């Protein structure tokens, strides 16, 4: 659905799915703005649930994609009803909000417009496009596109939204994730400001909290790297490049953007839970839904929410000791029960997602590494520390429990970062985003108090602080544009299905596979300069080779073994079969056995080969013509053969 209706459909699918809960529940004590923000934070999980409900009822992907806007459009009535009861938007919010929109949109959109191909195939974006296309092609549970037949050992709930949006608007994934990330940044900033507001901050303090979260974390570590010429490996205790500043992570498609919004929304409701009452009990329902949303979309951050819930339970227990009879203990019990109940669907989906994982990927960090990470926590939070201390002094009475929740949550996130080691990519760094979220509201409260003492100097100091906060983001963006790889093929990004431009090597062959084979076809190819599955819209029987390639952040074998945790023997067997099929000196028997392993999946197999380098394989397949094999395409030195499984091979493997 391109054209004038596409923006409307896009807005409906981003805002309204979560509105069924955020505006359907009687939560009038939550302001209109907070409920809108929470509605968007719920969107990925609600769309995920609605999508699979439609699929269970027999809808295809296309039918579900076009039904979802219609299903959610009536929720606009709930929003309009709440808007009529709400007061006018404070004038002081309009200017800063528009400025934030302009800055964030420029930061994300300008690089994508300057280098769309490079932006699409770097970092996470190209890899996640695999899953988006798998869903759009009708897969119930996306499979591992590098090992056909295995379920992708990665959460895919958050991929349903870009798959649906891309399909209905006929926009490429790069456009969808950039547009989404603009929304997620603004929602995260708004929720962080709302957290500061729960501590008593005015609009200045709320803005300071959002800026601290997005731009201020690990400011000291960045300038330490600057002092050593950005040789980051020389300062392993100075934090991690990936969260410096946190806004940097929103440049790519990743589910961390969704998750931070869900975590911020849940934290907001946790802080409100420090004040027991009937309305707070209803808010616990929304908190439970946000917990499910976080666990479905990005379960790696679910322990961070557990740390915050634990902090709130401690805060409620302390409040109970100070003022018995105020319902704190009963509310703590309700909070614990809601979190346990929310964890059940999270665990169920995790079991489904990791069904084909052979082993876990979590280990304990060594003593030296723990020490380095502990120092990194102190360095990363050092710029926050003075403002946190001032903010804590302003928290008294009822807000003491809220501050306790945030501090204990931050401590829990620090432990989650320091103690474990997730091999190769060390994904525990993402707990530092959660730690920054816990501290940012206190920073905003403290910055407001400091600003109040500056008098006439406040505007000048505020401008200087903004310029200082902008340095890491500006420098990193400039470095990324200067050093971005230009060794990528020209891509056609004019529609949802990204393709190689005509005339590019393998463009015609890949198009023949994508457009001329059944959707469940398995592809065998020996080499590919660019990560191929998004261009083929098909899964591979085995990775082309063990080298790192453009469009993929690491070596395939390491990724499959350490990150996804698949069985080593299975990976090796697949790689050996691929080698035996393409090797020039392979016997006919070896090739037949190798092809048979792929056909044992019970699905058609497309073999993409180079006519000159794989002449023996080409001739062998030609001898099989009429016995299940047929030439599908031949041009520019490449040939594509399609081999259909024989009845005896349909038993599966």
Describe this structure as you would to a colleague:
The protein is mainly α. The protein is 62% helix and 5% strand. The chain has 27 helices and nine strands. The strands form three sheets. It has a five-stranded mixed sheet with strand order 6-5-7-9-8, with helices on both faces. Strands 1-2 form a two-stranded antiparallel sheet. A hairpin with a 2-residue loop joins β8 (629-635) and β9. α3 crosses α13 (256-272) and α8 crosses α9 (160-169). The chain is globular and about 85 Å long.
Brief digest:
The protein has 653 residues and is mainly alpha-helical. The chain has helices at 5-15, 19-22, 32-56, 61-72, 75-85, 91-114, 116-121, 125-136, 160-169, 173-198, 203-216, 219-227, 256-272, 278-297, 302-322, 328-353, 367-381, 385-394, 398-418, 431-454, 458-483, 507-516, 533-536, 556-563, 568-582, 588-599, 615-623, and strands at 363-364, 420-421, 491-492, 499-500, 522-525, 539-540, 605-610, 629-635, 638-643.
